[in-house]
Amino acid sequence: MAPRLPRRRLSIGMLFPNMITILSLCCGMSAIRYALDERWELSVSLIIISIILDGMDGRLARLLKATSDFGAQLDSLADFLSFGVAPAIVTYLWMMNEIKGVGWAVGMFFAVCAALRLARFNTALPEDKSSKPELF
Question: What does the pLDDT look like over 16-25, one tens digit per residue?
Fold first, then answer.
């Protein structure tokens, strides 16, 4: 049987930063949806709202002392969608679909760069050494 991890008592203050992150992720998804409907201003506005929410969630988590590994990973996934995938798809549908494969390649390159940047950032995060056994 696996050892039990210590449980943190959940409160609204601990969940609030993650709810803002999820709202940011929903803005990114909605930006893609409105781009498919060719509503460019709304699509771009939702990406900008996602930027604002992304700036708020981490600060709020630190202020409320509600930071967690889960929150950091959720934030990275939301960032990849909102700032990697959504802008690539919006831009492709708006302008670059006329140049077909080249436009798609540019969009994919942008999304891959966003994923690599976030992966690099996530691997640079400090780890809690007390929860992992020492090998040497």
Answer: 999 999 999 9
Residue 29 and residue 126: Cα distance in Å, rounded? 30
What was the pLDDT predicted at 133? 43
Q: How far apart are CA 74 and CA 83, in angstroms?
A: 14
Which segment, 54-63, 68-77, 81-90, 118-127, is predicted with the most confidence on average?
81-90
C-alpha distances in Å from residue 25, one per residue of 50, 56, 130: 7, 13, 32
Q: Which two tokens stand for residue 127?
A: 């780890």
CA–CA separation, 44 vs 34, rounded Å? 9
Which is nearest to 86 in space by CA: 110, 117, 56, 106?
110
Cβ contacts of residue 62 below 8 Å, gap of 6+? none
Residue 66 vs residue 93, higher pLDDT? 93
> CB–CB of 85/135 below 8 Å?
no
User: Please, what is the Cα angle at 12 between 10 and 16, to 5 degrees?
Assistant: 110
Q: What is the DSSP letter of 135?
A: -
Q: Give the span between the Cα atoms of 108 and 89, in whole angstroms.
A: 9
